[in-house]
Amino acid sequence: MKFQDNADSGARKARGRPRDWDDKTEQNTIKSLDRAMQVFEFLSQSQGLTLTAIADQMDQSPATVYRILVTLAGRDLVEFDPSAQLWHIGPRAFIIGARFLRRSSLVERARPILRGLMDATGETANLGIERETAVLFVSQVETHASIRAFFPPGTASPMHASGIGKALLAQMPEDRLQKLLRGSRLQRFTARTITDRGRLIGELALIRARGFSFDDEEKNEGMRCIAAPVFDMNNEAVAGISVSGPTSRIRDDSIEKLSRPVIEAARQLTSAIGGEPR
Questions:
Q1: Beta-sheet strands, E only, within the chain
Q2: Cβ–Cβ < 8 Å for 63, 95
Q3: Neighbours of 272 (CB within 10 A)
Q4: Is residue 50 part of a domain?
Q5: pTM
Q6: b vs e for 172-208, b when ≥16 Cβ sit within 10 Å of the residue's Cβ?
Q7: Among 41, 48, 64, 89, which is least packed by CB within 10 angstroms?
Q8: pLDDT at 113
Q9: CA-to-CA distance for 180 and 219, rounded, in angstroms?
Q10: Mean pLDDT over all residues of the chain?
Q11: Is the model's pLDDT at 154 over the cut of 70?
Q12: Domain total of the chain
């Protein structure tokens, strides 16, 4: 085995950055790239702008701004609406932003909390977010038991037949909830699926009062789920944490006991992302 002398290794420049890393003078910046990022950031603050509006408000020539926008559009970072003659932020910007969130926010911060929840309950712990009218599962820590629930990241489930989904529905503003329910068909998956809107609204009121939701074999026969909402800094429910397992382990007499670590895990994640619990 070969060892590197400390003096020699200390003399080498740090990996990933040049010797003049701390020099922020103009010689170490790419002016055209910097100008492009200024346009990109400026556009991100609006719901859509014309080329003329961007150029005027940024005090740049329309020709320069147009070249920048066309270049960014080639990478799907911005997009053009020809009917309205407006420029918007593009889908690639969302994808890049989502990668940052995976690194530094909800999913990353949830991992140790999910592991702790799985250890405390012995059941699979899940993290899900709302996506249109469904719950999108974005992270999971599986139980070591032979019989287990499995919702790999990317799996979607209708909100009305999901523990996390009902936990999120229970925290929605009334007008948004009514609009969502009017535009959705409450599909039946098992004999226990709630397909009546009035009954579902009544259950959501119960969920708000007790602080957790319960999926009683409503999506998959033989499987149960207990979930609680996660809130952001605006006091809005942005995710849900749950434990899932077979009815043989999540029995009627264990629901209350299992709900406590689920609620606590949701509170921990709320705090970790700077949120305010209700």
A1: 78-81, 86-89, 124-131, 134-141, 156-158, 213-216, 223-231, 237-246
A2: no
A3: 16
A4: yes
A5: 0.63
A6: beeeebeebbeeeebeebeeebbeeeeebbebbeebe
A7: 41
A8: 97
A9: 19
A10: 86
A11: yes
A12: 2
